[in-house]
Design brief:
Layout (H helix, E strand, L loop, with lengths): L1 E7 L3 H11 L2 H6 L11 E8 L2 E10 L3 E4 L3 E2 L4 H14 L5 E7 L3 H6 L2 E6 L3 E6 L2
Parallel strand pairs: 4-6
Antiparallel strand pairs: 1-2, 2-3, 3-4, 3-5, 6-8, 7-8
């Protein structure tokens, strides 16, 4: 059973959980070699299956919006992505814009959860949660 936990962007446990992944060449390759980043402006949603990280979504809090960018889902598992996204949506205030830089292959899952496309690039789709 997958458990979703939420950690501040500079929490010590966050580093312990995600460091092995964010420095893993296979995970970086899935993220098109773009590095993961965090700060005190981030909240991380982490999916655990028997204490093993199977996905994460960092959410950056800006003044007028929250942004999903550079997330990871083991084996591109749609159920894991859906669970994480549902948690992100439920924890984000409805008066805040929620946008995502989404991998092309995940756009249908985001659409199922009420996101609409704003701009399409080669590998990504900018999407916004319809409120």
């Amino acid at each position: 059973m997958i458990q979703i936990i939420q950690l501040p962007g500079t929490d010590k446990l966050l580093y312990e959980l995600v460091a092995p992944l964010v420095m893993n060449p296979d995970v970086l390759r899935q993220n098109y070699n773009y590095p993961f980043r965090t700060s005190e402006n981030f909240v991380w949603f982490i999916a655990l299956n028997k204490k093993k990280v199977v996905g994460f979504i960092p959410l950056e809090n800006k003044r007028k919006e929250c942004i999903i960018n550079n997330y990871y889902i083991a084996d591109n598992n749609e159920e894991t992505l859906k669970l994480l996204l549902e948690k992100v949506v439920s924890e984000t205030a409805t008066n805040i814009n929620l946008t995502s830089v989404t991998f092309i292959e995940h756009r249908t899952v985001f659409k199922e959860l009420g996101f609409s496309e704003e701009k399409v690039w080669t590998r990504y789709v900018k999407m916004k949660k319809d409120r």
